[in-house]
Design brief:
Radius of gyration of chain B: 19 Å
Number of domains of chain A: 1
Helix content of chain A: over 70%
Distance between the termini of chain B: 45 Å
Strand order of the largest sheet of chain B: 6-7-8-3-9-10
Strand content of chain B: 15-25%
Distance between the termini of chain A: 20 Å
Shape of chain A: globular
Radius of gyration of chain A: 22 Å
CATH class of the largest domain in chain B: Alpha Beta
CATH architecture of the largest domain in chain B: 3-Layer(aba) Sandwich
Largest interface: A-B, 24 and 31 residues
Number of strands of chain B: 10
CATH superfamily of the largest domain in chain B: P-loop containing nucleotide triphosphate hydrolases
Oligomer: heterodimer
CATH topology of chain A: MetI-like fold
Chain lengths: ~240, ~260
């Protein structure tokens, strides 16, 4: 499996190298490699750290609120009656459309990035969690009630574990969305980060650094998905046994 | 122990149309009795069990377990579904221990005894996804037996199991049930299963279901597997079969089958 992936990736790099040879608007992989080697010490790491900071903090905020709101609205019809309309109204608005307001509210810097990532992560996490709770197998809930389970036991030992697979789907989608949004947010409202680095190098016409920034986003995003998959396996051991 | 009085249950289907599923069903179940409910497909047998469990509400009539009117899920009764509703995130041990945990008890002896009875001890630490459907159903039964419920409601608990294993499980089920002091009501399609396990069989009519007949099953307990080959067993089987066939003929299903 790994061999096939390595072979496909090598073929892709080779095709890219051949296609980009002598091309002014697309650097070759070797040129991107040189850009990486030529980058002043710690500069790339600082941008990666800034983006990771935006994504991780925004992800935790968006995921935390999304999970809580998804569970609360699905379990409490009175809350759902009041608040679902706001969520349905806000859902179609792309996070990018919030950029002007985010800059007005939080100024230039990290604030808008945290806010926009959290917003982008919130919706997939909320939707998956909400539908997970709504569609929980009622036989499980009724059985637990007939055994005399308290509300607390029902929530923590039946509802939440049953909803975990749905919540993790939301978290995985949310993490991907978070990366997409962080780059956009850093293009306009940040002073550091991979999006900022891409934007800066675009203005300096350093296309190899632009592609380097894109490649690093891909690699870091993949690594974070890997971390999330590992967490999923630890949190839901019964699924890995299947 | 259980008193079902003139129970009427309706379902609202498309365009507000109502379907009457149970129409004045009445019967009693005595304490520590095992009663089976037989009836044509779709006549409302499972609905009757859900009403007994308090998982659904009747439009009319009353259901009493002991002296308590059933108005919702209660610890008086527990239902074992046809598809075992196990907590897939809990191990076999944790699933069986759940009713005790719910009651605020930590009675590992009871759990271990039940796992022993069900031959599940070596799977105590496994998740349900590792078990066969027969084993899952055993876990589901063990969990129901671990509960404090005095009434065990069984909705075709062995329906998903192959015919051969089913007979063995019926024998195991009877042994285990005799070890408990629980009253049992089991819905089944299988006349032989009803005859092997029950003290009485309630035969329902087509929908809207009413009690068509109550058949006494006089075999002594514990029941020996060989009773299945006795003349009396065959006679009772024929009697129940005729009662059911009459109902299918009323609906025209038997003539349809013969034409096919």
């Amino acid at each position: 499996m790994h061999l096939k992936k390595a072979a496909a990736f090598s073929a892709f790099l080779l095709a890219w190298q051949i296609a980009a040879q002598g091309n002014a608007v697309l650097p070759t992989p070797l040129e991107v490699g040189s850009a990486l080697a030529g980058m002043p010490g710690g500069e790339l790491a600082a941008h990666v750290a800034a983006s990771l900071n935006h994504v991780i903090l925004g992800f935790f905020a968006g995921a935390g609120i999304g999970l809580t709101a998804g569970i609360a609205l699905a379990l409490l019809p009175s809350l759902e009656d009041y608040f679902s309309v706001f969520i349905e109204l806000a859902r179609p608005i792309p996070p990018v459309a919030w950029i002007p307001l985010a800059i007005l509210w939080f100024g230039i810097g990290d604030g808008p990035a945290y806010f926009l990532v959290a917003l982008g992560v919130f919706f997939p996490v909320f939707t998956n969690t909400y539908h997970g709770v709504k569609n929980i197998d009622q036989k499980l809930v009724l059985s637990a009630k007939s055994f005399g389970a308290s509300d607390k036991l029902l929530l923590f030992e039946v509802v939440l574990p049953a909803v975990l697979p749905h919540a993790f789907n939301g978290l995985k989608i949310g993490l991907g969305v978070g990366w997409m949004i962080v780059v956009t947010a850093e293009l306009v409202g940040a002073t550091a980060g991979l999006g900022y680095m891409i934007q800066l190098n675009r203005m300096l016409a350093q296309v190899d650094n632009v592609v380097l920034g894109m490649a690093v986003i891909g690699v870091v995003g993949l690594a974070l998905q890997g971390v999330l998959n590992a967490v999923e396996e630890i949190v839901m051991p019964w699924r890995t046994e299947q | 122990m259980i008193s079902v009085r003139n129970v009427v249950k309706e379902y609202v289907v498309a365009e507000g149309r109502k379907i009457v599923v149970l129409d004045g069903v009445s019967f009693n179940v005595h304490e520590k009795e095992f009663v089976a409910v037989l009836g044509p497909n779709g006549c409302g047998k499972s609905t009757l069990l859900k009403l007994l469990a308090g998982f659904e509400k009747a439009e009319d009539g009353s259901i009493l377990v002991g002296s308590t009117v059933v108005s919702g899920p209660s610890t008086e009764s527990t239902l074992v579904f046809q598809e075992p509703a196990l907590f897939e995130w809990k191990t076999v041990y944790e699933n069986v221990a759940f009713p005790l945990k719910s009651a605020g008890e930590k009675d590992s002896e009871t759990v271990e005894r039940l796992l022993e009875l069900m031959n599940l001890k070596e799977f105590a630490g496994s998740y349900p996804c590792r078990l066969s459907s027969g084993m899952k159903q055993k876990v589901s039964l063990a969990r129901a037996l671990a509960s404090k419920a005095r009434v065990l409601l069984l909705d075709e608990p062995l329906a998903a199991i192959d015919a051969h294993s089913r007979e063995f499980l019926q024998e195991e089920m009877e042994k285990i049930w005799l070890n408990t002091n629980k009253t049992a009501v089991m819905v089944t399609h299988d006349i032989r299963e009803a005859l092997f396990l029950a003290d009485r069989i309630i035969v329902l009519t087509q929908r809207p279901a009413q009690v068509q007949a109550i058949v006494d099953v006089p075999f002594p307990r514990p029941r020996h597997p060989s009773i299945r080959f006795t003349q009396e067993f065959h006679s009772l089987f024929a009697h129940c079969w005729k009662l059911l066939r009459n109902e299918y003929e009323k609906k025209g299903e038997v003539s349809w089958i013969s034409v096919q």
